[in-house]
Write a structure and sequence with these properties.
8-stranded mixed β-sheet; 7-stranded mixed β-sheet; 42% helix; 28 strands; Rossmann fold; alpha/beta; single chain
Length: 838
């Protein structure tokens, strides 16, 4: 079996350009990698274990050729060519004598290196198994010979995204390696975060080979970052360089979220404070227990393989000594004896508490062994004979091989999308002894429902700075219902301001991007998160204004009835008879209806109430004015016909009085009937006055008819006022001109003022103004015309005699008493026998 590992982090930089005249020198590898050497020894351990198992591949011995790719693409290609052609130096099992090409190669994790290796092995049909190549970009390429034993990073990225969303973080920093694979993975992280509504506060890429100035720039970005949640998706070698600089600058308070390439390494920095990375979290593949591996690793000794340069370098790095004979050159370097004890060492090589990638190396070796076992177990007629040029047989077995492992499938083609990804969420903590402890605090398993794939034991997590509560990482606080998010220009979508929803709009979810407008008849509550029915407003009896107007209306009606009772009781007295009692009662009836019509303006607006409030008022006012006009004209004609004998006597008949009033009132009735027929008043919901209140109005319907009734009312008032003017010099006993004039002036002032106020006021107050005008004008008639007479009737009964009524002013000729008496007898001016009291 061929194996390609990275026993060194990088190659020594060649300062001299190639001359092209001599063979270039082999580059020198630097920085021995204990973890990779641990993986290589795990592969060797698995091979030795299989060779000692008589049931697996009996009579067949597995060997290995392991090369150091030195984290370099060129070295990886060179190693693959050596494995294919069976040339060049390697760590070879001394028992392996076959020099032909290997049937399978264990490739390394780097994307470019794995790509180069697979492109070389593909044409030869040699399967390449990657035990730690996690780049998802392999799935986009046509590699028929590439197999993986570990889920690619797309699953880990989804798990990290779920973790960030679980704790409500949306403002994180991203640290990545500059390698091609990590750059691609970081782009995937960026897109995945963006889809999940997570913003990246800053993004830095670096490499271990960068200058210290560049590394310091990355650390400064971390220090100046507005967030302390840092996602570090980088290689182990790169993170070692970065974290050393972070430690030098004493940057604390960072909550690291690491990739599985470095987060699970317990002895990452033995020389640093153990609390340096306290609280770091990350997803890693589940760890396994490999019995006997610990003992095998501790038995390694350079004396066993004197010619193995990698084992010698491992020994030198572990014990800080030299395997070469040095005499006087560097007395500070201790000579290695080979008797040093690995049992006393605790480093990345000897640590078997976190066997994660190692378990996949171990598993991959056994998969190949089982596949070969199946091939060699075929009968002579069931399968072709194995040969070096028929490695395609192994490919076929690998494509159909299923492990009995708990993961159900231990090896996948790079095109196989049926991964069941399982990760453990680990937390770096400090044990009671003060050592670094890797604690499993959660799991991520894609085999379950999407909402149950991530499970976290929050109470087991120790956060950075030894905190027990999860840190916060948000650019802007969530916008509560009733507000919306307003993006800040030039900043990520996670940074926003919360703006209150404008009038008539609500938001009933957290972090709403838009506010929704309430329906027309609804209005937001005080929190702006719910639409409530608008308050309906109209002039009602329970309203303070409505109750006041109702009191005056009822009071006016009672006064009117009281006045009618007084007049009825004293109907035979000279004062009542001299003032045409029949028309007086008719006028009182009209005033009673006027007072009662004001109640309609405090009722709930309906089709009937709206119609009645306008028509009843207009008809009753017309009736009242007609009665006043009839009384004034009769008195005026009576005194104007003193010298004309009986020429106009026929007009003083009570029937003609009633007919005149009926005709004048009928004209108003006809206008109202036409109004109701063509365009009657109707109830209407108005939203114009108050945004949160619905005003119930009574629309007038036709403006023309509305104006017509008032034109007719003003016409009657004008004619009556004119008649009263001509009757101003008549005797006071028979003349009401002064009282009528004053009452009509009150009437005209009230109604002329009414129009501008009514047209500009909201419905509730417009109705109140209308009712007030009716009451004011009605009280004007009642108090100005009837109050003086009631005063004489009730308080001055001695003035209510025929003798007092027949006193004339000096400007009237004598003998008028007989003339008045004649008219009283002929026209029954003072009679009330024809009065109909409703």
């Amino acid at each position: 079996m061929g194996g390609i590992f990275h026993f060194h982090y990088h190659l020594e930089q060649q300062l001299e350009p190639p001359s092209f005249t001599a063979e270039p020198k082999s580059p020198k590898c630097e920085n021995f990698n204990l973890k990779e050497f641990h993986l290589a020894q795990t592969m060797i351990f698995a091979i030795h274990e299989i060779n000692s198992n008589p049931k697996l591949l009996p009579n067949i011995t597995l060997g290995y050729k392991i090369y150091d790719a030195c984290s370099n693409e060129a070295q990886s290609v060179k190693a693959v060519m050596a494995l294919i052609s069976a040339q060049d130096k390697s760590i070879s099992d001394s028992s392996c004598t076959v020099t032909s090409k290997v049937p399978v190669i264990f490739a390394d994790a780097g994307f470019i290196r794995s790509l180069a290796e697979t492109l070389l092995t593909g044409p030869f049909g040699i399967p390449t198994i990657s035990f730690s190549a996690t780049c998802q970009c392999f799935g986009e390429l046509e590699f028929a010979t590439l197999f993986e034993t570990i889920p690619n990073d797309s699953h880990q990225i989804i798990a990290i995204t779920s973790l960030v969303k679980y704790f409500g973080w949306n403002w994180v920093g991203l640290i990545q390696s500059t390698s091609t694979a990590m750059a691609l993975e970081s782009d995937t992280i960026f897109q995945e975060f963006r889809s999940a509504g997570i913003c990246i506060a800053f993004r830095e890429a670096f490499s271990e080979t960068d200058s210290r100035e560049r590394i310091q720039q990355v650390v400064n970005s971390i220090k100046q970052s507005p967030t302390k949640i840092i996602i570090a998706f980088a290689t182990l070698a790169d993170m070692e360089v970065l974290l050393l600089e972070v430690f030098r600058q004493n940057v604390t308070g960072i909550q690291w979220i690491g990739s599985q390439s470095w987060i699970s390494i317990r002895n990452l920095f033995p020389q640093l404070n153990a609390r340096f990375l306290l609280g770091a979290l990350g997803f890693v593949v589940p760890k396994a227990n490999i019995p006997g591996l610990k003992e095998f690793l501790l038995q390694v000794n350079p004396k066993q393989s004197p010619g193995n340069p990698f084992l010698n370098e491992f020994w030198e790095k572990t014990f800080h000594c030299s395997m070469q004979n040095i005499t006087g050159c560097n007395p500070t370097v201790q000579q290695c004896t080979g008797n040093e004890h690995l049992q006393d060492v605790d480093n990345l090589y000897t640590d078997t508490t976190q066997l994660r990638i190692s378990s996949h190396v171990y598993k991959a070796v056994y998969i190949i062994a089982h596949a070969l076992h199946n091939i060699f177990s075929c009968g002579n007629n069931s399968c072709p004979k194995w040969s070096d040029d028929k490695t395609w047989q192994l490919l076929n077995y690998l494509r159909t091989f299923k492990s009995a492992d708990s993961s159900n499938s231990a090896i996948h083609s790079h095109q196989d999308g049926n991964w069941i990804s399982r990760y453990e969420l680990i937390n770096r903590q400090i044990s009671a002894s003060g050592d670094v402890d890797i604690v499993v605090v959660g799991k991520y398993d894609t085999s379950g429902p999407s909402d149950l794939q991530l499970k976290i034991n929050e109470e087991d997590i120790v956060w950075t700075n030894d905190q027990r509560e999860a840190p916060r990482a948000i650019c802007s606080e969530s916008c509560l219902p009733g507000t919306r998010k307003a993006m800040r220009p030039g900043e990520p979508v996670c940074c926003f301001d919360c703006v209150q929803c404008v009038a008539a709009h609500i938001s009933n979810v957290t972090d709403a991007r838009f506010c929704t407008k309430c329906p027309l008849e609804y209005w937001p509550n005080q929190y702006g998160n719910e639409c409530l029915p608008k308050e309906i407003e109209y002039l009602s009896f329970q309203d303070r204004i409505g109750a006041t107007l109702t009191s005056f209306s009822v009071g006016g009606a009672c006064l009117t009835i009281t006045t009618a009772v007084v007049f009825l009781k004293h109907r035979h007295t000279p004062l009542v008879r001299a003032n045409n009692s029949e028309l007086s009662f008719l006028m009182l009836l009209a005033l009673l209806l006027c007072f009662l019509s004001a109640l309609l303006f405090s009722a709930h607006p309906t089709q009937w109430s709206c119609t009645l409030r306008f028509t009843m008022f207009s008809v009753t006012v017309a009736l009242c004015l007609s009665a006043i006009l009839g009384k004034t004209v009769i008195v005026l004609l009576a005194f104007k016909t003193v010298s004309q004998s009986t020429k106009l006597v026929k007009w003083f008949n009570p029937r003609r009085h009633r007919t005149g009033v009926l005709v004048l009132t009928s004209i108003q009735c006809i206008i109202c009937i036409l109004w109701i027929t063509h365009s009657p008043p109707y109830p209407f919901k108005s939203f114009a006055y108050y945004p949160h209140i619905i005003s119930l109005e009574c629309q007038i319907g036709s403006v023309a008819y509305f104006c017509a009734i008032f034109v007719y009312i003003f016409l009657l008032a004008g004619v009556t006022l004119t008649a009263a003017y001509f009757a101003r010099q008549l005797p006071d006993s028979f003349n009401e001109a002064t009282h009528v004039t004053f009452s009509l002036l009150v009437f005209l002032v009230v109604w002329i003022t009414f129009f501008p106020v009514y047209m500009s006021a909201p419905e509730k107050y417009a109705a109140a103004v209308h009712a007030f005008a009716i009451l004011a004008s009605s009280f004007g008639f009642l108090l100005c015309i009837f109050a003086p007479k009631c005063y004489i009737i009730l308080l001055k009964p001695e003035a209510n005699t025929r003798k007092n009524l027949m006193k004339f002013s000096s400007n009237f000729n004598g003998g008028i008493e007989s003339h008045i008496s004649k008219f009283a007898d002929q026209s029954k001016l003072s009679g009330i026998n024809s009065l109909v009291i409703a």
